[in-house]
């Protein structure tokens, strides 16, 4: 009996979602090509995903996501995008952020993920980039850490404390 890891489930459902949008159904060979693995291995995983209610699968006919599978595929894509945005905010190159997000989306604790999402949303809603974020980006880019603008920090901090 095959026991599927969370990463395997999410990766397959993500690929199935993309192929379903593109072709109407996801076929074994298309999935195997996307994952660079043997079609026989894909068939075995599809059968397991079907038995767990993530997809509807018929041999030689292809697979489609169930509501349960679609929900996970969408959540995985959302997590991926927020992590990628987070990493890019930190100054990580887009290609590296994309690659790292592919791994991180499967392993972050729910609380950590929620904090990352909230952080990205807070920054996206700012009309100006916070000084500390610009300072971080510059440090990542140049390797030189600039001095913190203490006067601005102290003024802001004192106002909040009162």
**Model regions low in confidence, pLDDT < 50 over at least 5 residues:** none
In helices, the fraction of residues equals over 70%
CATH topology of the domain at 6-71: Arc Repressor Mutant, subunit A
Query: How would a crystallographer describe the biggest sheet?
Result: 2 strands, antiparallel
End-to-end Cα distance, whole Å, is 62 Å
**Count of individual helical segments:** 8
The sequence of SSEs as H and E is HHHEEHHHHH
- Provide the β-strand percentage band: under 5%
* Physical arrangement of strands within the biggest beta sheet: 1-2
Describe this structure in words.
- The protein has 162 residues and is mainly α.
- Among the domains are: 66 residues, Winged helix-like DNA-binding domain superfamily/Winged helix DNA-binding domain (Arc Repressor Mutant, subunit A, Orthogonal Bundle), CATH 1.10.10.10; 35 residues, no CATH class.
- The chain contains 8 helices and 2 strands, in the order αααββααααα.
- The protein has a two-stranded antiparallel ribbon.
- Strand 1 and strand 2 form a beta hairpin.
- Helix 1 packs across helix 4 and helix 2 crosses helix 3.
- The longest helix has 23 residues.
- The protein is elongated and about 70 Å long.
- The relative contact order is 0.09.
- The mean pLDDT is 89.
């Amino acid at each position: 009996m095959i026991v599927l890891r969370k990463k395997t489930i999410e990766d397959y459902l993500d690929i199935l979602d993309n192929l379903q949008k593109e072709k109407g159904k996801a076929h074994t060979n298309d999935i195997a090509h996307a994952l660079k693995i043997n079609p026989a291995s894909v068939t075995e995983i599809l059968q397991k995903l079907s038995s767990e209610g993530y997809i509807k699968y018929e041999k030689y006919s292809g697979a489609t996501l169930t509501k349960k599978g679609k929900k996970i595929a969408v959540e995985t894509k959302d997590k991926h995008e927020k992590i990628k945005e987070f990493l890019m905010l930190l100054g990580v190159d887009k290609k590296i952020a994309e690659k790292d997000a592919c791994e991180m989306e499967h392993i972050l604790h729910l609380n950590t993920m929620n904090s990352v999402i909230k952080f990205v949303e807070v920054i996206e809603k700012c009309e100006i980039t916070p000084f500390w974020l610009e300072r971080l980006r510059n440090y990542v880019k140049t390797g030189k850490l600039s001095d913190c603008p203490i006067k601005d920090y102290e003024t802001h901090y004192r106002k909040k404390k009162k």
